[in-house]
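SAMPLE LOG
Freezer: B-3
Tube label: C17
Construct: single chain, 239 aa
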Amino acid sequence: MRPDLPASAPGEPIPLWYVLPDGFHPVDLAADPQPRMEESFDRLSAAHPSATTDQLVAGVLSFESALGRMVADGLVHFSSLPCARRTGLLTGLCQIFVVDRVPGDPNLYPRQVLKAQRTDDAASAPHRAIVPLPCGPAAVTVCDRVVPVPGACFGVAADGATEVRSVTFDIAFPGAPEAAALTLTTEALEYEEEFLEIATLVAAGISFTPPTDAPSPDLDVSVATGGPNAGEDIRSVFG
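STRUCTURE (predicted):
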């Protein structure tokens, strides 16, 4: 078994490449936040024309605060996916985290993840499996849950809640005590088949080695490219 290597030091490149299907809109986590905040303000203003300036500012600051907390927790990619699909408009979020894992055989990591999940909360995630991907085995969790939505996040006074479906892939780096956690989330529950199809495509595009092939023209290259082969489609696992 190949020995584990030390985790990447802060500021060093992470050996993680991925591709995104057309329609994703990544947030540049290293960019100056001022233009992003101005864009968020304009978007909220258009979506909620009756909101006051104070509410809009609160919404923008709430998003930036949440983004900062996620970066501190290992977030390396954040994007939205308002994609025009075959059956309509599929919206959602895509997040990739790099997290620490227990050193050891990376092929055993997915089983460790699923075992820990069953211990933590067996009711919240009814669909779990280990799925082979081009970059290695992944623990896959599909779950529906109701999440609170603070009104300040959208520049309105009232709080609310929404039901979302999420798909999470947990994949161990092959030569370091770290793991990639990819999560896609959507409120468009009626587009389950296409959502799982997109999630599988994104997960299959993750790679821990530099790409050797030219990127496909219908994929948006965010950091680098991985293989577009979707491996075993999770739809065959969860039916």
